[in-house]
Amino acid sequence: MNTSSGAKLAGLLLGTFDAMVDVVVAELDREGHPGVTATHAFALEAIDDGAQSASELGRSLGVSRQAAAKTIAALEELHYLDRQDDPGDARRKRLLVTARGREMMTIGARTFDALRTQAAEQVGIRALENFEEVLAILGGKSDSREASTRSS
Amino acid sequence: MNTSSGAKLAGLLLGTFDAMVDVVVAELDREGHPGVTATHAFALEAIDDGAQSASELGRSLGVSRQAAAKTIAALEELHYLDRQDDPGDARRKRLLVTARGREMMTIGARTFDALRTQAAEQVGIRALENFEEVLAILGGKSDSREASTRSS
DNA sequence: GCTCTATTGACAACCAGGTTGTCAACTCAA
DNA sequence: TTGAGTTGACAACCTGGTTGTCAATAGAGC
Questions:
Q1: Which of A101, A117, B52, B152 could serve as A97's disulfide partner, Cβ 3.0–4.6 Å?
Q2: HTH marR-type domain spans which residues (chains A, B) (predicted)?
């Protein structure tokens, strides 16, 4: 009960994310894509958005390239991704989203969008847009190292 | 760029949570509480809020009681928690937050609140309150109409 | 052309925070 | 008194990260 409003805010952010992801993962499972995790979906999205190698994917996701390589291996295992030798650089393996991968992305995006639409219906599109605006500001700048030191 | 608005929303939720937690963990480290994770802080909060045993903590956090027990062991290791035999039930070990634990909670809460205050200064208190209202609605119910599998 | 440095992907060991399964001790209602 | 449910402990395991190391390769500087 003495939970701070700030901590409550943080908890709600995580809880809401989790709730959305749960629905999307369940829907993917239901539509023939079992075993997909949020990590997979976001990684495939990043690859399709331009990350062309494990190193690039790691940078794009903000994780080590070893972690990215593990995710890539999992995506390849699930046939969402093909790896080909890069003709211009023998060190690299180019990443190509397969048709099945594209289908998974489509379902994921559709389900995420359905959740957002549902949220808009609950609170009104105007409130949701304001919400997203505030969220972008909050998420955009995470500096404020000294903002916390005082105010004690 | 073809990231769906819904997925973008989810990504921002997680990103904002992570950004907040990073600041809080860094501040705790700076103020003499190294090695504390978000899990620790939220668990201690839950214990102080009334979770009196590993089983209760697990229920309260939504994880297995074995996972809760691991967190409790970590908190005890860090001297944030004492365990005592429950006089009324020999199966249980009562959980007591130590003075140091209380100090850690205070710093965490203060830092979380400072972040929230900072957010309010950026977007206006009214916008933040609307934001939190929408967030509570979104987080509270995670049902989807055609994409629904089960609520939870 | 040669060499030095940076980058890449692979591999291994490890860690944190979860999971399930199992167990003995214990409580409590029938 | 007994039997079902709860509790904490322990073990094995999984996932998604981490760091460290390595050989192969690319590319710039000379």
A1: A101
A2: 6-140
